[in-house]
Give the backbone structure.
Amino acid sequence: MEELRELYQQIILDHNKSPKNYGKMVNCTHASEGYNPLCGDRIKIYAKVENGVIEDIKFEGEGCAIAKASGSIMTALLKGKTVAEAQQLFEEFQHLITSDVRSNVDTEKLGKLAVFAGVREFPTRVKCAGLAWHTVKAAIEKKDELVTTE
Amino acid sequence: METTALKKEAVHTPTGRQFAHFDVEKIRADFPILHRPVYGKPLAYLDNAATTQKPLAVIEAIRHYYSAENANIHRGVYHLSEVATRKYEGARKTVKNFLNAASEREIVFTAGTTDSINLVAAAYGRKFIKAGDEIILSHMEHHSNIVPWQMLCEETGAKLRVIPINDRGELIFEEYEKLLNERTRLVAIVYVSNSLGTINPVKDIIELAHQGNVPVLVDGAQAISHLKVNVQELDCDFFALSGHKVFGPTGVGVLYAKENILERMNPYRGGGDMIRSVKFEKTVYAELPHRFEAGTPHIAGVVGLAKALEYVESVGLEAIAAHEKALLEYGQEALSTLKKLKLIGTARKKTGVISFVIEGIHPHDIGTWVDRQGVAIRAGHHCTQPVMDRYGVPSTCRASLAMYNRKEDFDTLIAALHDIIKVFD
Ligand SMILES: Cc1ncc(COP(=O)(O)O)c(C=O)c1O
């Protein structure tokens, strides 16, 4: 039960219920679609990038609470960041969710992302947390093909 | 967690009596894995449609084969090879009796249901199905009874026709009647749906197809551990099954096919064991069924499968079916009391498969949540994406039963579902 509450923290449940930046964007400059073949979940990311800055970003799709909260928190965090900063955050997030369960989490550096530390206890759910991030990375790096978690 | 439905069900006489008759604890004692805890909790294994657990008798049979009898078959003149060959061919007889086939020549060992269906698509389909011909399937097929036919259609120019299902998840028989025509060359149909639990009226389907001389393949993967199968009475032309879904090992399965059809089919894979003589000018193929078993087979798997069938026989499929039916009713009724829960697949004739969704909670989250209470259920599309599309959901949760399940497994599941609903609310 403890690990479950660690995974499904209130912040994650709240973002799942009312995700931020959810929906389509018509005038985006970048878009990508991510797919998790394990559960059939799909996520779409739209971004408007001008002069190397993510001016606007949205996401939509079907997903579990972890995937949805990840998309919500991620888009909130990336809005206004440069592409380089986004890539840096991607690396940090990847490092967090794939790090050893016992290792310390630098909550100060990770900020809101630290709530995802709980997925480390759930190897089958790491992909859910990472889906939005892999998709945004593909979008801003202008890779058009479908991104999968495989 | 006690709900009113549970209380009501517990005093329900017909099902209550059934629970008493069937000694589920005695059966559970035969399955070592059921006694290992998961996250410190007793295991409630409810993913039997994906694969079943193995009784000690099967595990022991495989161990014994490798410890005392292992050799290649149909080759050596030495003692061990003779023993192994006898075991392997003896298993064929066990399967023949289990399915009530007319002859052992009709029993081909394969790698599983998927392999059996691919065998038919390649060895029968490529020879007898041509451009413009039609193959009839249903909307509730497992991907393994869709993709091989799609591949065949792409290759030959034949067409797939799909029997629709109603909201309960039952085949619409009149639509099937309409689809059958003079271009139909094969009907390939699942006996029991793995995502809905629906038992299809395969006997009627076969009878109707035969009026137009159309052969029928039955995907029996989910039927074999729940229903008594008699291939002669069904009069099916092909019947496919997997060992691992009937308490046997993975990587082994069976294709039953009528002898007169097997005789006319192309060989499947070429190689050793499937030949009588090989010259560079011409190869003469082996007798049935060896013609379809190229290469060294999964001998230990076949031995384990035969043991598994013997085990099922010893418990008795009628007793198993009655026990599972009582459990299914208990589980469905108890689940139905949960608010926001919707059952997917409410056919009037079904086996112990309960697919469901809960509004506002993704199946994946439910799967993870109940797992921590020791409950193993499946969350996903169950290799039946067309079924998911039909109900407009990307995935469902699925609890599926076997003979060793008991009421407590559902009670644990339902208690865990109450918790997650509260937390996500
Ligand atoms: C109805 C049905 N058909 C076919 C299969 C494929 O069986 P296997 O993976 O053992 O080849 C399954 C297994 O999930 C099934 O449930």
